Structures are given as C-alpha cells and as structure tokens.
C-alpha cells in the first residue's frame, strides 16, 4: 500500500510536468538552451538537467555539483538513441520516469524512518509522510528537473541507515557510509557534511576517539576520487564548454550591438554582486549581507518553502520575482505558526533521541548557511529538501508523547491532518494553474 500510494502520487505529478511546454520541448525549433532556458520558470529551479539530457553538456557548477553532469551522461546517451529511433526529443519523458522512481523511493524511505525507527504506528507514519510531501518545495522536487530530486532520497537513505545503526547501538559501517558520501557529495558538495554528521552520531560515545578519527580518515578515499574527477573535468569538458560559450557570445556580440551592451552590463553586474558577498569564494556565492534575515525566514524559509504565495506564484527570483513576497491573508501565517509549533514541540519531546539530534544537526547546518551567511537568500526555499525531513521526524516523537492523552493526541492529529489537506490542496492548485496555463 505504501509503495503503491507513493508511486501513484509521483507518477501523477510527473505526468502533470509533461504538460509544461510539451510541444516546444519535444520538437524544439531552436537550440536546446533557448528552448528550455527561455521558457522554463518554476520557482528558481533551473532546467540544466533537461538541457543536459537533451544534448550532453557540462552545465552544472563543478564546485557545487562535481559529478552531476557525469551522472546525466547515460541518460543523455539514452535520449540520443531514442531521438534517432522516434525523431523526437525524449528528455522530458526520461526525466519523468527517473524522477518518478526517485520520488517513490523518497516516499518509502520517509515512511520507513517513521515506522521502523521512530516506531510510530502505520497510520500515523503514513499521515506524516503525506504531510511531508505536501510541503510546496518537497512536492516540487519530486517532478522538477533539479538536483534536489536526487539529493532528497540520498539524504533520507542516509538518515534511515544511520537511524537503524543508532537503534541497534552500533556504528554505521564504511560499506554504507562511503558509497553514500561519494554519491551525495557528487550531487551536491554540502551533502558531505550531512553524511558525516549522520555517521558521527552513530559512533560518538560508543567508540574511542582515536578509532573514530581513523574511521573518518577513510573518507579521504572517496573525496580524493571526487577531487580527481573535478580536476579532470575542469581541464577537459568544462574548459571546452567555457571556450565554446565565450566564442559564441563574442560572435553574437559582433553581430548585435544591443546584445553586446547587455552582455557587458551583465558581466559588470556579476562582478559588483560578487564584491557584495560575505564570502569571496566561487564555491559559496549569493551570500548577500544586505538582505534582511528575519523577513526571509518568515516569507521564504518557513513560508514559500511550505506554502506557495498566491502572488508571483512559482516565479524565479533571479528574473522578476521580488526577494520577499507577503501572503495576502493572515491564515497563511497562522498555518506557518502551527507548523513551527508542532516542530518545536516535537524537538522537545524527542530531546533525548539521537535520531532527532542527528536530523537537527543537519537542519542547523543549513540554517547556518541560509540565515547566518544569507546563502541563496533570494530563493532559499528551493533548498527545503536539504533539511525539511527533520520536521516530520521530530513531530513523530510528539505523537508518541501524547498517545496516552486522548484529547491532546486528537488535537495534534487534527492539526496535522488539516495542514496536510490544506497544503496539498493549496500548493497543488497553484502548481497546476502555473504549469497548465502558462
């Protein structure tokens, strides 16, 4: 039942995504970059995966996603063969199929974390799983062609395996942590920290410190492989992509003076933007010191990440969406407060659980990045999949704590059920309107 329900939901969402500019993307009359980049606008996610699978190009920023382009290469080869057979660009179909599997895997993993590790009953575990996927930017990553869709199941698998190790009072074995470290870091570099934290929580206090240090020293092996792949790509495919792109821009600028002025202006704007950063490394960008943190926490991190705004719905903050958009009615803020109250109560009830503090350490790491450093502040909500799993896991301990208090138990369950139905209805309605009517 759990797998079937998850598969049905993920398949339906990915079928919905296939309606988005179907004719343009399956039979483009222009280059793949123009066909996808100029028409794709979904909250701030980028269409690089669609473009890469349509015709393989190393478009991802290597410092952040060192192996992601290589992971997309088999799908690009499959699409190349399908195009030759059927004379149609099948990138959106391939991504829909793979993303349906990844989304279903995430659904099942979240359910199993709740059912087998927090030991919540089946009905409540399924309710919390449905609640988790009603969060706007969890729902979106199950069908949007973005690396978050790969990160989510990898992080949930990390939490599940580490949680089992914690339950059984043993350390997470290297044959589990090393492949997770390699894959998760290859998708997004900061995932290295999440895997390391999960591994550390299974060992701390159960192994002597020298042995823990030796254990983590082995992490240098997969990290060295990733670094080697990074250097190789920088000198080969990435260098060729940069050279080709610069040559194309120069030729276009020579023919079009308006484009030449815009290109010069964009480069100057990029330079000024980098000078405003808190940290001046290419690895960490968009750390604007001038963006107000508290309004972003309310409207973006715990707002848009969970409840879509009705104004500027799913627009891209790098294009025309303002950095901060406010809800038009008070009850949206009320729902946000209820969600945060459930989260805080769950953390308190699970304060003696290693699983809660493991996931909270991941959550706090992301809050350091997004609140402390203002990293990606304008569209921080697209990162929700990196940390939001901490919420249903914490709330599971709240449900366990109130089991013997019928009235309080019913109140908590009704609050979760209301939020689940409301978020699914509200977020899905706005998403369908955005995809179908654009």
Topology:
Elements: H1 2-17, H2 22-26, H3 32-37, H4 48-54, H5 68-86, H6 91-117, H7 122-134, H8 136-139, H9 148-167, H10 174-187, H11 191-203, H12 209-217, H13 220-235, H14 237-255, H15 257-275, H16 293-304, H17 330-349, H18 354-372, H19 390-401, H20 406-437
What are the key terms here?
globular, 438 residues, mainly alpha
Structure report:
This protein has helices spanning 2-17, 22-26, 32-37, 48-54, 68-86, 91-117, 122-134, 136-139, 148-167, 174-187, 191-203, 209-217, 220-235, 237-255, 257-275, 293-304, 330-349, 354-372, 390-401, 406-437. By secondary structure, it is mostly helical. Helix 4 packs across helix 6 (91-117), helix 10 (174-187) packs antiparallel against helix 11 and helix 14 (237-255) packs across helix 15. The longest helix has 32 residues, at 406-437. The chain is globular, with a radius of gyration of 22 Å. 41% of the residues are buried. The model has no long low-confidence stretch (mean pLDDT 88).
Mean pLDDT: 88
- The geometry reads as globular
Helix content: 55-70%
Give the percentage of residues in beta strands. Answer: under 5%
**Structural class based on helices, strands and sheet pairing:** mainly alpha
Unreliable runs? none
- Count of extended strands: 0
Encode the helix/strand succession as letters.
Answer: HHHHHHHHHHHHHHHHHHHH
Rounded radius of gyration (Å):
22 Å
Q: State the distance separating the first and last CA atoms.
A: 35 Å
Number of helices: 20
Main sheet overview: none
